[in-house]
Structure formats: C-alpha cells, structure tokens
Amino acid sequence: QLQLVESGGGLVQPGGSLRLSCAASGFTLDDYAIGWFRQVPGKEREELSCISRSGYSTNYADSVKGRVTTSRDNAKNKVYLQIDSLKPEDTAVYYCAADPQTSSCQRIDYWGQGTQVTVSS
Questions:
Q1: What is the C-alpha to C-alpha distance for residues 35 and 103, in angstroms, rounded to an integer?
Q2: Given a cut of 80, is residue 1 above it in pLDDT?
Q3: Mean pLDDT throughout 44-69?
Q4: Residues 6+ apart with CB under 8 A from 42
Q5: How far apart, in whole angstroms, are the C-alpha atoms of residue 100 and residue 110?
Q6: What SS3 string covers the chain?
Q7: 116 φ, ψ to 5°?
Q8: Would you say residue 6 has pLDDT above 90?
Q9: Dihedral angle at the C-alpha atoms of 74, 57, 104, 3, nearest 10 degrees?
C-alpha cells in the first residue's frame, strides 16, 4: 500500500504558525513533485504550493504567498509546509499530494488523508 500521511495540524490562534509534515509509506518522495492543497466544505480544492523533486524550485498560490513556505528533506523522505500569520479563513483540511513529474503538481498519483487546521481564538 502506497500512502502519504500528513501531520501537524490542530487548533491555533490567529497570528500563530503551524508546520505541517508529509511522509511517504511504500515509496520515496524524491521521485515526485509534492503539492499542498486545502479544502473547506462547500468550496473547491485549492492548490497552495508545489515543490519540485529536488526541492530546487517552488511555486505558491497568490492567496498564501508570503505566509507559506514549502520545503523538503529527501533524506528523511518528508515534505513540509510552514504557515505563518494564520487567519480564521485558513481553517481547512490540508492535503499533500505526489506528482511523478519533475516540477508539476497536476498529475496526482497519491493523496494523503488530510490534516485539519483550525484557526480560532
């Protein structure tokens, strides 16, 4: 069974920060570009970031640019999403996803189960 597992979500106050992790089971993440997505009920899934297989290049959605940073440690088979200055509207389920292309996050092979991020005072 090939899986991605997200962790690091939880309840955080506005203005706080979270670091989400994405770990692979059954395959090595350095064979994939990794995207981060989020979704709230009643809305379409939103792509937040994409990091290339090597980690050399990253792309961010305009909605979160400047507040998020994605990085990867291929030696640990993990990818991270750092979110700063959290706002209530950041409340969503966050997913990581694996794309076999070098630096694209459109052809998704694997999705994680998601981790809930709730921003509230």
A1: 10
A2: no
A3: 95
A4: none
A5: 10
A6: CCEEEEECCEEECCCCCEEEEEEEECCCHHHCEEEEEEECCCCCCEEEEEECCCCCCEEECCCCCCCEEEEEECCCCEEEEEECCCCHHHCEEEEEEEECCCCCCCCCCEEECCEEEEECC
A7: -80, 130
A8: yes
A9: 20
